[in-house]
Amino acid sequence: MQCRLLGMALALAMGSTPSWAAPATPSCEAALGTWDYVAPSKPGRAVVTKLADGRHHLVWIVSERGGTAAGAWEGICEGSRRTWRVLFPSDPGIAGLKVVEEFEVDGDAIRFWLLGPDGKRGAMGGARRLP
User: Fold this and answer.
1) Residue 67: its pLDDT value, please?
2) Correct CATH for 27-129 of 2.40.128.120, 1.50.10.10, 3.40.630.30, 3.60.20.10
3) Closest of 105, 98, 44 to residue 73, by C-alpha
């Protein structure tokens, strides 16, 4: 037991992260860029930018059977969660709606979930960053 504690103390003192430590929360900056939706998402594209005041803007378009849906949202990002406000939707009835999204970025891939009113994750979506 003492050997194990000493090993952990040495690892921390030397600046390395022990393997049991939780991974760092992805920064909001990692989620910025131009993304192509991939399965299980519908085909489409999204562009996420950050304004000087810190707000994030999202413009997206997806192809659906028989048509196309698009929208523009703005929001704030904290850790791995963004709270969006729908600005310009394909369905005018949802303008102004608040949408909460959780995401995980891994290199040039992102997975995301919209949260329901109960705070539970909905269906997962995915995208790959474009160069």
Assistant:
1) 87
2) 2.40.128.120
3) 98
